[in-house]
Structure formats: C-alpha cells, structure tokens
Design a protein that fits this description.
Blueprint lengths: L1 E7 L9 E8 L3 E10 L4 H19 L6 H22 L8 E10 L2 E7 L3 E6 L2 E4 L6 H7 L5 H6 L19 E6 L5 E5 L1 H4 L4 H10 L5 H11 L6 E7 L2 H5 L1
Antiparallel strand pairs: 1-10, 2-3, 3-4, 4-5, 5-8, 6-7, 6-9, 9-10
Length: 246
C-alpha cells in the first residue's frame, strides 16, 4: 500500500481545521483517516485534532486480526467519545463542536471504511470514480427525496449542513462497509473542501495523469484554483501487488 496526502488552508479561511493521518502496521494492515472540524473560532481545530489523535492511537493498538469492520467501528465510536468529552470540558467556547470523519483500512484484500458527516471516500478503478460513502447532510436527504437534483445540491445554501458529526452528542451512528480490492485500485479520502470544488471528471483527470505522490498536491491546487473557499484535504491510498499477494 502506497499512501500520499496533503492538507491546505484554502483561499479564504483563517485556520485549517482539517486534519489527516495514515500509517501501516508491518504487513498486517494499512490505514488512513481525514477529519474536518466544525465549531466557533478554534473549536473546529480542537475537534478534528482530538478525533484524529484518538484514531491514530487506537490504530497503533489494534491488530485487526479478528473482525476488521468491528474494530474500525469501535475506533470511530471511541473518537466520538474523546471529542464529546473535550467539548464538555472546554465550556462555552467548545460547546457543540464536532468533526466529520472518514477512515479506511486495508486488510485481508479488502478496504474496510467508516464515515460520519460529509467528508467522502472514493474508489478509483479502471479510470472510473465511484463514491463509496453517502453524505450525512441535509442536501443529500433532499436529493434522495427527489426535492432537488444533484446539480442543485452543489449550489444549495444548505449544502454545508450535516446531519451527523463526531462529538456533538454522547453517541453517534457510524456507517461501516467494505469492498474487495484489486491491484492499482486507489482510495481517495477527502474533506468537502475538495469534493465541493471539483467535479468527478476533474478528480479522474488528476488521478489518471499524476503519479500517486503528486496526486494530493494536484487535487488541492485545482480546488484552490476553483476558489478554495474551505480547507482542503486529500489522501490517496494505492493498492500494490504485495497487498494482494499478502
């Protein structure tokens, strides 16, 4: 597994409240995660940092030898508790803070992935981009109800309103799923600062034309060229022959 990532403050925001981490545990598994914080002033940064540090710590303690999906679910639930406790401890300045999260684990020739909020995970295979996650957002619910189209959702005034986030409440619903992998598959994890600014066609163009170590930088630059109104994070995981052979 080859992993490459980039985060950027964007063109307008005063602080980068996105965070990301990635790693691998020998030949056992590889992982990556992205968090996009929300909250007044620096609370969003605290939320995303608290979540990503909790996730990184728990990945270092797990071996994923039994049930990878359950292990990933537990890690995300624990990160929710960590953010919620930090929000409660901070008083009025951190009340209601939260963060989105997407996380992926390569184990046993599968990608196991989890998410809360509107950060996304995509699969890029054979020049085709597929969104694996479903946004937990108001506009996504409106699209599914037939009230607005996908194109209208991209410019809807409520497009940044999410229906789930880590740390806002004591408990949170976490979506977990998995797919089998193939050699040269790429898994893209990103914040909405990227997905809101780039079409699927733009993402495919970058993933097709750049080597993996240059892809996150190229994606971030393109999002900035398109306005960069939000923090931008892109992390790409590429499956190698070694991952398939075990």
């Amino acid at each position: 597994m080859i992993i490459s990532g980039k985060t950027d403050i964007g063109q307008i925001r005063q602080e980068n409240q996105d965070t990301w981490r990635a790693g691998r545990k020998g030949n056992a598994f590889a992982w990556a995660a992205v968090c996009d914080g929300m909250g007044g002033e620096r609370a969003g940064r605290l939320a995303s940092t608290t979540a990503i540090e909790s996730i990184e710590h728990d990945f270092s303690q797990k071996d994923f030898s039994n049930n990878p999906a359950d292990s990933l679910y537990t890690i995300i639930k624990k990160s929710n508790t960590a953010v919620y406790q930090a929000a409660c401890a901070g008083g009025a300045s951190t009340f209601g803070m939260g963060t989105t999260v997407v996380a992926a684990v390569l184990k046993d020739k599968h990608i196991f992935y989890a998410h809360v909020g509107d950060s996304r995970i995509y699969l890029f295979r054979h020049q085709t981009l597929v969104q694996l996650t479903r946004d937990h957002s108001r506009v996504q619910e409106m699209v599914e109800a037939g009230k607005i189209t996908e194109q209208q959702a991209k410019i809807h005034p409520d497009r940044n309103r999410i229906t789930r986030a880590l740390g806002v409440e004591m408990d949170v619903q976490v979506d977990v799923a998995s797919i089998p992998i193939q050699v040269r598959d790429e898994i893209l994890l990103c914040s909405d600062g990227l997905s809101n600014q780039l079409s699927d066609e733009m993402i495919v163009q970058v993933l097709s034309q750049y080597p993996i170590y240059e892809q996150p930088e190229a994606l971030v630059q393109l999002a900035n060229q398109n306005g960069g109104p939000d923090n931008i994070t892109a992390v790409v995981m590429q499956v190698t022959q070694e991952d398939i052979n075990g």
